[in-house]
Amino acid sequence: MQQERAFEPKPYEGKTSFDQFLDWEELPVTKNFVVGDIRKLEVAPWRRRGGLAHYIILGHPKEPPNSAAYVCEIPPGQSLKPQKQMFEEMIYVLKGRGATTVWLEGGKKQTFEWQERSMFSVPLNAWHQHFNGQGGETVRYIGYTNMPMVFNIYHNYDFVFNNSYQFLDRYHGEEDYFSGKGVAVDARRVWDTSFIADIEKLNFHDWTRKGPGATNVELEFCDNIISAHITRSPVGAYKKAHRHGLGADILVIEGKGYSLMWLEGTPLERYDWGEFSMFSPPHMWFHQHFNTAKEPLKMLAFKPFGQKYQVMDYDRLFESTKGGGHLIELEDEDPKVRQMFQEELVKEGVPFNMPPVKYRR
Ligand SMILES: [Fe+2]
Description:
single chain; mainly beta; nine-stranded mixed sheet; globular
């Protein structure tokens, strides 16, 4: 089975190959630091894949992205076209129920079912097709991909979408591949799997290195280099600031508040968000998230890097800036950060729940 070849990127004239591909897709695109409730983003018919979609390219609007997300709707009883792709993707189901069939060229098909709050990935370059399993309800999911970097490196549609290479080291048709089984790597707070039926049922680990009362679980799928995590923070508390490269997209599952993001030596910039907002810190900008809701904060982060197949030194993200790492300890924070949070909590009638701090000069 071949997918139609229809797009040839031209040399750069103000647009990367990926930017040109986005134009060719003729879908609505939101490019910004923050996007509002993604459950309500307007979607348009998707010629290439079927269904309806809207691209979300987060981060600094002037910074060429290395990741791209999209929301996709599948109308009741319908399916998307079969697809394979030379970039990695993680899918989180926002609404509805359905199924995905996965196969390798000439191999046996296998199908697994999903619903709201399921999360999964399809092995790199395996054929797959998504189905809406309900006659009366729309499916909406968010897909997060590292398509821009792959598209820009090879700038060739056939290489990306009509490539016959099979990554048998990742997937060779194992029958229980999407059963929900996984491996827990507790020392790294990791759940390594292919499919999660309901993210609410995951085991969370202590993550107080990042902030008082914080817990988290890191998610690795299908031997990808991209990964995800879900973090919970208690009411009235916040996590320490840190920084890393571009492309980490954060989806707020529960809670409301704001993030401070800044490039070292420049003023703090504030971005407000609510449930199902998404945002992404630009390249090496410090970022710190503040929940002003009366309920704990829960965030799902999609990242272009993980821990299993590392493309950067993951552990340095959580070493203090004083030791050459990328995390600002509470004692090293700008006092304005805590003061702003306390003022916001007073407005919301939420008690402040952070331990006292003695600032280091
Ligand atoms: Fe981060």
